[in-house]
Amino acid sequence: MLLATVVVQLAYMAYYFWPFAAKRSPDAEPAPTHEQQHPVSVIVAARNALEHLRHLMPILLTQEYAEFEIILVDDRSDDDTGLYAQQLTQYYPNVRLVTVGSTPEGLAPKKYALTLGIKVARYPYLLFTDADCVPTTNQWLRHMARGFGSGADIVLGYGPYDEAPGLLNKLVRYETLLTGLQYLSFAERGNPYMGVGRNLAYTKATFLATKGFASHIRSLSGDDDLLVQDAVALGKRAAVVTHPAAQSVSEAPASWSQWWRQKRRHMSAGSKYRATDKARIGTFMLANGLFYLTTLGALFFSPVDWVPLAIAWFVRTSAILATYAGASRRLNDRQSVALLPVLDATYFLAYFLLTASLVLYRKPSRWK
Fold first, then answer.
1. How far apart are CA 230 and CA 127, in angstroms?
2. What is the three-class DSSP state of 344?
3. Domains of the chain
4. Taking 60 as the threshold, does the pLDDT of residue 27 lie above it?
5. What pTM value is reported for the model?
6. Is the pLDDT of residue 50 over 60?
7. Which residue, among 286, 164, 265, 278, has the nearest Cα to 223 in the 3D structure?
8. Distance CA 199, CA 331 (A)
9. Which of 365, 193, 128, 361 has its CA nearest to residue 263?
10. What is the mean pLDDT of residues 108-118?
């Protein structure tokens, strides 16, 4: 069993992860001529996000791009989010405000808010980020829009978390790197299955083709990954953009309970994935989990043959260190290589507990 789990993980490393990790993002700046062909509507849904918008809007407003607009969707805020957005519309002609007074019963609030923002978008290319995110540079829009230049319908970006002290932050950032490595490398191999709403773009035609969020409008999660699922099922093509200037950074969850709720919400969307994607992702996650479980079984419930056990651990650990370190360089999301084995074991233990909690207790979580 231990040998089988190592073989499966090495197969994923060799076919998906290492080709992605070893590749370098292009250093060349996007050609401005492409900008005329891809005018972009940047859409941000915000609820009680005044302080976040004060950090986000200055960098959005200074994006170097030929033609774009910013649509702020004030989703039922009871602070000064709407007032701040209204003031921006008076000074910046490319800023527009959509106000959501209430959400129809049974509909997911964020998806409803995004739908209203998309409905009024002037341009055929849509770029999304969250109110609590900040693009790393004023070239973010330019690099993300460059993904449309290849004829793609969807552009998948990467959204890391800010570095901070503490084990939780290291674990969250490791989990984000591993998730990014999965969905970006799978997409580069022709198997896109998800994106992250804090750095995702697609055409308005793609949104209309999937009938928006209709297939999952009552599900609280999935405004990003389930939209990608529906689009790919219709034959839409996805491009990957990993340049450091094309990233949008967020603050990591500040407490274990906050991270737990966030992960439960995100993982709940996985049950609606296509069967092939479930099998592809599930096989990798199961192989990692069983690797640790079979190791524990060998240590505590049977005589230990240390030589093959040590060889299996050395080969597997060396492979993940090399691959994950390479991915962190490509994505400019530097991780502590020495801590990777510890974080990997901790994450898959947490993943097992999260999966069990979703099976046993399905209380929904609402977005803030």
1. 18
2. helix
3. 2-21+275-358 (no CATH), 31-270 (3.90.550.10)
4. no
5. 0.91
6. yes
7. 265
8. 13
9. 365
10. 95
Per DSSP, the three-state class of 64 is coil
Q: At what angle do helices 306-330 and 340-360 cross, to 10 degrees?
A: 90
DSSP designation for 220? S
Dihedral of the alpha carbons of 143, 128, 73, 88, in degrees to the nearest 10: -10
Position 289: which residue type?
A: G
Q: Which two tokens stand for residue 3?
A: 């040998």
Cα–Cα distance, 331 to 352 (Å, whole number):
27
Q: Rounded to an integer, what distance in angstroms lies between the CA atom of residue 281 and that of residue 191?
A: 11
User: Would you say how long the chain is, in residues?
Assistant: 368
Encoded tokens for 323: 């691959």
The rounded distance, in Å, linking the Cα atoms of 146 and 44 is 20
Please name the residues in contact with 73: beta carbons below 8 A apart, sequence gap of 6 or more: 43, 44, 45, 46, 98, 99, 100, 113, 114, 116, 117
Alpha helices in 95-198 (DSSP H): 109-120, 140-146, 167-188
Pseudo-torsion of CA 133, 167, 12, 333, nearest 10°?
40
Q: Are 142 and 30 in contact (CB under 8 A)?
A: yes
Cross-strand partners of 250? 133, 161
